[in-house]
């Protein structure tokens, strides 16, 4: 049995890992791209965390089970449960509130950071803890809760003060939790680690491109742009993007540190390693900022995806792949048959046809009035399910629509349109069960502090 290390990072878009937008100082990620199997046309199955991870950890599309609001469905396969059943020691490490036990993501994990170490997975200073406790006690008084949130937002926007400490655990701290846990294990391990550093609010780091921006200015920028969105000044967007690049540089260093330390504790030569991000990030390229749930453009859904392990050759897969392919790929390497509910397929084995004419999908919100995107790697079709409006374009020239398609473009459109229709029939015919989890006011507040509107 092989050790398995599954690394995910929040909000990291593909073109900031490789290409002209990638920070020049990156060392670890370029090395992995050189040595690991690289999926250069990889897509998130949703443009935001609480839908995206339903696919990342199950191998099924979000709409297969209608539970984005309340979490991981009881009938949805969870990779940690399958691996635990086969004798793996399972450890989950994160500090994203959407991935907390409140949303049932801890299923199958022997150890889950937050659940088994106190708290709900977030990083709290004493001040933040008191602040959130006050909100928890004020659940019945909605006005007070709004007043506390207003205080938080204005302290950030006007004064550049982040009440409490970071809203998530920095990578350096997460790494230590992971290493400590792996040192205590004897059987094969499954480690899932999700890093929040690249998610807003972005903080400056020494020795990166963001050095010289004060933390106070960074906090002010986040709150200002989070409120103004597409109306934000270009100079503010540029400064925010500089902070984003700095976070990527910091994460890259910490990723290298983690791999070095895990090589010492569990040995990586016979370990399956998987890396991806849950979605991308927008900087007003098409009137969108950060990662709104309706965003189906490249900057929000094109993600890095890298795989390495015994008997996996390096190189590049240009055929479209997506998050639903990761669970079957991992289970195959562990010698476990993928359940019938899994929508993806093993993309790292000899059976995968890298030249196949494949279409992958990204789902936004729900299948009644949300959005759906399909791409074959060259063309994209985005459909608004509420209005029926479509955008058909070449993948690298969106949102410039093809309004008068030639013969080959017409064939591509018909194929994508038919695939979207078939996908809708497939996911809406699946049997559904939703969870009954209640979301506390404290959790809701943490999400709103991270910039989520819902």
Automatic annotation (TrEMBL):
InterPro entries: Alkaline_phosphatase_core_sf, Sulfatase, Sulfatase_N. Transmembrane segments: none annotated. Residues 2-336 form the Sulfatase N-terminal domain. Pfam families: Sulfatase. GO terms for molecular function: arylsulfatase activity. Belongs to the sulfatase family. This is Sulfatase N-terminal domain-containing protein.
């Amino acid at each position: 049995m092989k050790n398995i290390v599954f690394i995910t990072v929040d909000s990291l878009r593909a073109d900031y890992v490789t290409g002209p937008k990638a920070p020049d100082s990156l060392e670890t990620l370029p090395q992995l791209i050189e040595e690991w199997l690289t999926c250069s046309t990889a897509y998130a199955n949703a443009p935001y965390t609480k839908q995206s991870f339903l696919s990342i950890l199950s191998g099924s599309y979000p709409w297969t089970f209608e539970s984005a609001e309340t979490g991981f469905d009881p009938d949805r396969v969870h990779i940690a449960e399958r691996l635990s059943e086969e004798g793996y020691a399972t450890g989950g490490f994160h500090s994203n509130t959407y991935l907390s036990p409140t949303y049932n993501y801890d299923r199958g994990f022997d150890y889950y950071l937050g659940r088994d170490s106190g708290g709900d997975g977030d990083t709290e200073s004493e001040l933040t803890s008191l602040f959130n406790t006050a909100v928890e006690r004020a659940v019945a008084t909605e006005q007070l809760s709004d007043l506390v949130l207003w205080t938080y937002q204005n302290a950030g926007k006007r004064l550049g003060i982040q009440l409490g400490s970071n809203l998530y655990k920095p990578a350096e701290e997460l790494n230590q939790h992971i290493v400590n846990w792996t040192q205590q294990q004897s059987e094969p391990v499954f480690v899932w680690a999700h890093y929040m550093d690249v998610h807003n609010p972005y903080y400056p780091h020494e020795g990166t491109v963001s050095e010289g921006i004060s933390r106070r200015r960074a906090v002010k920028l986040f709150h200002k742009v989070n409120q103004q969105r597409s109306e934000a000044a270009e100079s503010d967007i540029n400064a925010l993007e500089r902070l984003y690049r700095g976070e990527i540089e910091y994460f890259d260093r910490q990723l290298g540190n983690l791999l070095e330390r895990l090589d010492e504790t569990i040995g990586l030569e016979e370990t399956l390693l998987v890396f991806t991000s849950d979605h991308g990030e927008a900087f007003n390229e098409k009137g969108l900022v950060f990662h709104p749930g309706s965003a189906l453009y490249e900057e929000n859904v094109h993600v890095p995806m890298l795989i390495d392990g015994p008997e996996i050759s390096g190189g590049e897969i240009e055929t479209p792949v997506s998050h639903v392919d990761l669970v079957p790929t991992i289970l195959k390497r562990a010698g476990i048959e993928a359940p019938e509910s899994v929508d993806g397929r093993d993309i790292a084995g000899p059976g995968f046809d890298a030249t196949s004419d494949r279409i992958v999908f990204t789902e936004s919100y729900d299948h009644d009035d949300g959005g759906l995107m399909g791409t074959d790697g060259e063309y994209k079709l985005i459909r608004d399910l509420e209005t029926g409006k479509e955008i058909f374009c070449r993948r690298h020239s969106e949102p410039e629509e093809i309004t008068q398609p030639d013969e080959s473009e017409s064939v591509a459109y018909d194929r994508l349109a038919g695939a979207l229709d078939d996908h809708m029939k497939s996911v809406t015919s699946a049997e559904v069960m939703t969870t009954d989890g209640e979301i506390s006011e404290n959790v809701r507040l943490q999400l709103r502090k991270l910039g989520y509107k819902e």
